[in-house]
Amino acid sequence: MRVSHGVRLGRVAGVEIGLDWSLLIIFGLIAVMLAEGAFPAWHPDWTAAIAWGTAVAAATLFFLSVLLHELSHALVGRRVGVSIRRITLFMFGGMAHMEGEPPSWRAELVMALVGPLTSFVLGLVFLLLAAASLGGKMVGVNGAWDALPTAGPLPTLLLWLGPVNIILAVFNLVPGFPLDGGRALRAILWGVSGDMVSATRWASRGGQAFAWLLILAGIGMIFGLRVPVFGGGLINGLWLAFIGWFLNNAALASYRQLLVRESLEHVPVSRLMQTRLTAVPPELSLASLVDDVMSPSGQRAFPVEDDGRLLGVVFVGDLNRVDRRAWHQTAVRSVMIPAESLITIGPARDAMEALGTLGEYNVNQLAVVENGRLLGLLRREDLLAWLAVHAPGQRAQRAQ
What we know:
single chain; alpha+beta; CBS-domain; 3 domains; three-stranded antiparallel beta sheet; 10 strands; elongated
């Protein structure tokens, strides 16, 4: 899978690392808040260059900490049977993209808890390094803040990273899906009930409840309320409400994604594809294609064959590449997508994989090909029609 809308940074332990452009927003915010706010308040004697250099280093190391958090999910996931080939760092931290659901509630629980544990350990390591750099003069989080006024750039950097990673660990343990704490809650509910879909629904509702709590707290802060830990003010309130809005959407999307996966996994493409396709010869004119073939059949894509051999496929949208006045003189061969350039899928692959391929390449249909022969086309609407009938929510409604 390719990392979309961002930059591919490389691979770590076989996991592809991508950076979403939205990361630049929060990276800049952290750097500005530290360089123009926190560091000058803690160290009035610092020059702008020292403050900005330390702030950029702090923001960079923070996202490296987030990367380690997500890598721990990926590596432990690999040990318990879950494939995670890609991690994306984005505005709200990071995301390990799982290919399928965990095989058991125990696997889910271990995967969920290892991330916050990693962040907590990183926080302790940064605090211990800060203590060492200060000659062992501070102990714990309170000691970290007491030591700030006399700390240089390196201890300040470490003293900021330690508590931030511990806060990140605590925040991720909130029992609201899809946060790590919500995944741990789902694992426990799954283990108790034996029903992953039901467990996901309840964990998702927990995530929505927490998200609305953040939204309401943010709105209160905008109107002057001071909230423990988060403080008050317009900017902080807007930011907290925005995080709540994002988490609410993520909780809903995660549950819906599970329903889609449950409906499409193990359903072969051959069961959903369109098979009644009229093939056309490569020398047929576009005018004849439209008037004699396309209009009567209602097809949107036509295999182009020569003696039973697939040469390519011509789609309705391909006609727009040629001036209508030239349709009589233009052969189908000149506008078709050659067979070797088609985005294809095998008839035995499952529909969930097909949905992922459609999204990855941003296309509306896939050619279903086996041994060089076009068997049919699978369109987005074919998948949507299947989901409308077979999604777990739809089945429950029909049973009532």
